[in-house]
Amino acid sequence: MSNAKEIKISREPLLKVVKRDDMPPLKAWLVRFGTLAISFIIIGLFSMAISGKSFGETYEIMFMGVFGRIFEGKLTMLWKYLQEVAMLLALALALTPAFKMKFWNCGAEGQALMGGLAAMICMIELGDILSYPVLIAVIAVTSILAGAVWGLIPAIFKAFFNTNETLFTLMMNYIATQIIAYYLYIKGGGSNVINPVSAGNFPTVGTNEYFVNITVVTVITVIMFIYLKYSKQGYEISVVGESQNTARYIGINVKKVIIRTMAISGALCGVTGMLLVAGKDHSINANLVGGEGFTAILMSWLGQFNPFIMAVMIAIITFIEIGVAKVADTALLNSSFSSIIVGIVILMLVGCEFFIHYSVKFRHNKKEVEA
Amino acid sequence: MIIQFICRAILLGVPLLYGSTGEIITEKSGHLNLGIPGIMYVGAISGVTGSFLYENACGNDIANMSPVLAVLIPLLCSIIGSVLMGLIYSFLTVTLHANQNVTGLALTTLGIGLGNFLGASLINITKSELPSIALTKTSSFFLTELPFADKLGWFGELFLSHDFLTYLAIIIALVATFVLNRTRVGLNLRAVGENPATADAAGINVPKYRYVATCIGSAIAGLGGLQYVMAYANGVWSNNAFGDRGWMAIALVIFAVWKPSLAIVGSFLFGALCNANNYIQGLGTETQELFKMLPYVVTIIVLIITSMRNNKQNQPPASLGVNYFREER
Amino acid sequence: MSTQPAIELKNITKRFGAKVIANKNVNLTAYRGEILSILGENGSGKTTLMNMISGIYFPDEGQIFIDGNEAVITSPKDAFSYRIGMIHQHFKLVEVFSAAENIVLGIDEGKYNLKNSTAEIKKISEQYGFDLDVNKKIYSMSVSEKQTVEIIKVLYRGADILILDEPTAVLTPQETQKLFAILRRMRDDGKCIIIITHKLHEVLSLSDRVSVLRKGEYVGTVNTAETSENELTEMMVGKKISLNIQRDEPKNAEDRLVVNKLTCVDRAGTTVLDDVSFTAKSGEILGIAGIAGSGQRELLEAIAGLQHLSSGEIYYFDPKTGEKENLKDKTPMQIRNMGVRLSFVPEDRLGMGLVGNMDIVDNMMLRSYRKGHSAFLERKKPKDLAMKIIHDLEVVTPSASTPVRRLSGGNVQKVLVGREIAASPTVLMVAYPVRGLDINSSYTIYNLLNEQKEKGVAIVFVGEDLDVLVELCDRIMVIGSGKINGIVDGRTATKEEIGLLMTKSKQEGAEDANE
Predict the structure, then answer these.
(1) Where are the alpha helices (DSSP H) in chain A?
(2) pLDDT of residue A363
(3) Lower Cβ count inside 10 Å, N or C end of chain C?
């Protein structure tokens, strides 16, 4: 009898992980931003170690590296930074409706490339034919369509055959890359490079060439927030994402919602591609999106479907990315150091979700008392 | 010509074979590890760093280098590097129940950052003019052919001329097939990926299986990175040259319908597809570019076919991508 | 039969949370070489009790003795080491594995050799008369074959105390007969067999002794030879308890919903509804009684437009125009657009009726969000409705913007029922509306249903507690294996009568098994 009791106690694990779903959203965000703050300190210490500068100096280098001399009225660096933030945000926003529906769109890169390609083709082929406003309109329409089509293909198969979308969209990226390579070859004339095209560029405001891009993304951010939170379609997306059973119960056509949402997601990626081509590079290459499609997935997920929080997250992550690269530069290290840091920060943020959704309980030897 | 084409296809296919064998083992445990591209990259750079240090320690003189150490050091470094990555993934997804897709993608970001950082740092140390490091001496040990390779004509070239990592890849894939299908460990592992609750009820330690499978899978995938540098690239490392091979390896898993033995055929076929453009007569360069999308198109077709046909056998592990949490009772 | 009990339970108590007591001071004894039936209605705690023996749950109080020694069973693995094997209602099998692979899964017995194991499995099969192709994959097996795999799985692990949870629920009469023959053979081989069931005739034909549970408590044990169907029924359902649920006479009852020869086949090809015909009248509550899984869910879903019908018609009579409309093959959306005010409180509240992660306001909109031409949601009315429901039904919640999954079961149900009633339905279907609710919340729900009845709504009430059904409903329809076994008057029917009707359809099969 006493023997059996001992077995029982030894079998009870000391730590017990329990699922919790009662953490208020505010506290959850506190945990997330707390993690971000901790990682900020770690970055500082890391950077100190490699650069041999003091703690304060390190952050100064980071700040200067990102914003430049903004206090002296020189805003070039700031605009550049905002442009970086805007492009990543645009992709993250594009992915958000799909994710909210629990559709893993890993194809932002490809969808953006196709949008960019559409813009490029318009700029080259129609640049001399159409008047400027018409050209811009045509560019917008074609890139939206191109991105949407690229998003629709996997969505249709998902809706009708439940084909795995993660891998499907992933493969679509590389097909897009090859199409770009093909286009570069036929247009690049052996060099595989297209020189910047002047037709169909977005206007510069003053000396600021990124103003249009940043404005467009700001508008998309607000619209996306409203769309997800206040529109009927956004509501349908939530219901489908949460429970397809409930969606059917209230008569939502789940296939239609999947297809429609991916069309939107792809279209917005197409817009991003257009912004990158017509508003920034004025040319195209396979590295147009530069792997940001994957970072955007992480950002959309970290922002938990809230466009504004996403914007803040991206601003911070981009700050870290550029800032740490500058610190590495001054320490004569290469700038890839910042990718490592960003990777670590994101992994920390991913890990901190555990403390939001689970709580760890110590097992008290309650059974002993009972005996 | 045809022999050369096949050999080239095999050489191109081997990194993919490593990657997909590793990913198959991982996925069999229920983990969709999208960190494989990063892990392969880390596997490559770890090996490069190891051999770089060894070459320097030997005063860059091939005469001082022991063939065994020259091979063993990069091999071990590569394995250690990729297993560490696998551990990070397992810790986050198994212990902390983190989302698998997000963890994997973040790991890829980290891995590619690590690779490029170390790579650029090593290039910096050599003060080389070119943005690359050449470890040709170490590579020469890796590239040692089997005896009689050059004496037996086409037979020798086709079957005996490859680097030892190519043979190892095939052996690993065959062993993996055997373990998965013919051993108790394999049976248990497949049960964990299919239905962790059932496996748990049958007394199988689900977290342990997931940790171990992911780490072994990572180690194997990492060797693919190493083979790429040491054999395919003749010991020359340059940043980002590895390209999208990691994603191709993941795609190959579907193509091979989760069977390492089929991955052997699949990887060589992918290698051939990637390379076909160079060997088909009369192709314009622009058509060649279009040819390069073949492996991806084929993968998508396989993906669609597996999902359309309701064959229960060749489906992904039923719990792929789903973390297991034994609910509190 | 030996004199030493193989297994003995003493004063076992198990609680879930603070309020729900699943088992209270249960005592039970089972011997080797006998078949013991554990009889009880749905929710009487049979499965919970057996789960404690097989290591799924751990008792809060009480002791378990195996062969006279106290046993501590904290996991299925422990149970196996005491040679206890349980065959659950939901099979724990890996679909893509063969039978043999499933049977040997998780056992460490030296070198892995499926051939040797197969030989061993064949030996067991022959010993007890199982008919099993060991190389067949689980996904291509019938339910009965899967069950066979589960039984062999525990035998292969050396179990000599076998617990079967509702083993015949999914079997045809012929399969049931076969299973019983095997169980008898195992009994004769000296094994201790415990079967959980609520089917009287099976109990009588198969078991040596019967232990009865009612509402988590142990009622008693009788020898099968010395008992009768009537005695067992009385033990199982208990003396009539008066619940004092209000029941008025239906006023101007007219046909509202006429279901005619409804037949429904599920994806696996099983007929889940078989030629079902009935009429639901306005101003009355039509109860549906039956063993869980007899087609109740499919019936309600078919009416709501969520199930594909093989044949049959569903007619709705519009109370205003008196027009007759056929709801067959209409989607939920089309039904609503036809002006049919059909409300449905499904069994799965958080998985179907509500979205757990959404707050109360957003859940209010589920039915109504499409109203109007605007592309945007209108949250004012849902918010008012949410506040009204919280106030009127006394929903305990921090606020209207609390995700519903964080509410207690009773409050979740109030939100769901409140929403469905707010649509001022003419037909209201409710499935197990008081399951898991405490007494007060249950009465709130009964009162709401009575109010709707008063308003002339046709109410279809699927319930499991016969006491409630006979006090609340005007008519009670008894369903068994997808067929209507009878419709009785709620005012005159007895629980025994309903209990017998519930098990009617399987009677023939059971008699065969009796031989």
Answers:
(1) 2-11, 25-51, 55-67, 76-100, 108-126, 132-161, 165-188, 211-230, 232-242, 244-249, 254-276, 292-302, 307-330, 337-357, 366-370
(2) 55
(3) C
